[in-house]
Amino acid sequence: MDEHDTLSCLLIEDNVADARLIQYMLDDADGARLTFTQAFALSEALDLLSRDSYDVILLDLSLPDSSGLKTLDSVHRARADIAIVVLTGMDATDVAIGAVQRGAQDYLVKGHGDGQLVKRSILYAVERHRANQRLLLAEAAFRNIDTGLMVTDAAGKVVRVNAAFCRATGYDSADVVGGQPNILKSGVHDPAFYEELWRELRETGAWEGEIWNRRKDGKVYPEWLRINVVRDEGGGIAGYVAIFSDITFRRRAEQELLRQATTDPLTGLANRQLFARLLTSTIEQATRYHRSAALLFIDLDGFKQVNDTAGHAVGDAVLREIATRLRGAVRISDEVARLGGDEFVVILPEVRDREVASSVAEKLLQEVSRPFTPDLDAASLTASIGVAMVPDDGVTYESLLRAADTAMYRAKRTGKNGISFFSGEAAAC
């Protein structure tokens, strides 16, 4: 604050002569200029404070409608955000101490000191109060924010944590203050992860990203973490501030959205979109490592009749049962998907030859034709299966799916309830 600044002052003083003298003294003193608004009684002052704001309040404790420390209490309760300097005729040590204890920044006695002393006291009071207000607001934010906060010194020793940190991690403040942040380490990340974190922190002064930490009860959870270097005025490292949010709910929501986007809602199998990615990946892996893979295209025989005679509810139940049977009949490394309607596909990412693929297809035929429970009227249900091999019948998603589909229709035409391999010319890449 310099002499070119202007501060607004609410002068609460009922004596006109004293008020003029105070203003004259302060105008003549060095330092920031003061503009005055005068209130002659407590009630008038409280009305002004309810409507306007000021940088400082210069308060006489003896007013027509209030006296003593009760006057200060009333003003402080009304506007604790404004610096208060008591300037009164009461020269009593106990009153002065009580005034400072109740929120006054300073206590001055009329006639004891010149205008320069009073102005200096006012300017110091404003600066102290502003600093205290900043600290008070920062402390309130630290305590009440829903985001977890951890403060460490330059050596990494924990200095403070807030309530949100304790709620998220399960640790009390006493558990972590004085220790190292690695109490939260989950074991999910390798040393290289932390080395890169500290490298970026040293070079840029900040690091932000997703990290897995461990709660006091041992549960591992994901959080979004930002760490900032705190530097002093000379540029030295004074400490670190870590701000984090538990993103377990967000991760679950993302996983649910991914599940909905990639899963057939009726059967729980992979849907067409996920199947396309899985098949493309299988072809790429088989081609790169010179392995054989197979695609089985399955179409149910007689399913339309089930829907027509027993209804769509039974039809849906049959499809769910077929999906369960197909999934249970193949290896965990094999993929089963529903393309839509009564069409299913099975990806065999590693098969030695056609005989192995044929053996799996035979097993699937048997699973489909097994009797259903009495409430599912689908006793005559069978399947037609077309088989296409990688790399013989195609090395792209489109060519392999087309080959398996063609083979399936050949199985349909030759009597259904059977298996057919693609026998045409290999599809173009």
Query: Strand pairing plus helix content: what structural class?
Result: alpha/beta
Q: What does the largest sheet look like? A: 5 strands, parallel
CATH superfamily of the largest domain: Reverse transcriptase/Diguanylate cyclase domain
Total helical elements: 14
Principal-axis shape equals elongated
Describe this structure in words.
Residues 207-259 form the PAC domain. With 429 residues, this protein is an alpha/beta fold. The chain folds into 3 domains: 6-142, Rossmann fold, CATH 3.40.50; 148-251, Beta-Lactamase (2-Layer Sandwich), CATH 3.30.450; 263-421, Alpha-Beta Plaits. The protein contains 14 helices and 15 strands. The chain has helices spanning 16-28, 42-51, 69-78, 93-101, 115-144, 163-169, 173-176, 191-204, 248-262, 272-288, 303-310, 312-329, 354-369, 397-413, and strands at residues 6-12, 33-39, 56-59, 83-88, 106-109, 148-153, 158-161, 206-214, 220-231, 237-246, 293-301, 335-340, 343-348, 382-390, 419-421. The strands form 3 sheets. The chain has a 5-stranded parallel β-sheet, with helices on both faces. A 5-stranded antiparallel β-sheet has the order 7-6-10-9-8, sandwiched between helices. Helix 3 (69-78) links the parallel strand 3 (56-59) and strand 4 (83-88). Helix 1 packs across helix 5 (115-144) and helix 2 runs parallel beside helix 3. The chain is elongated and about 120 Å long.
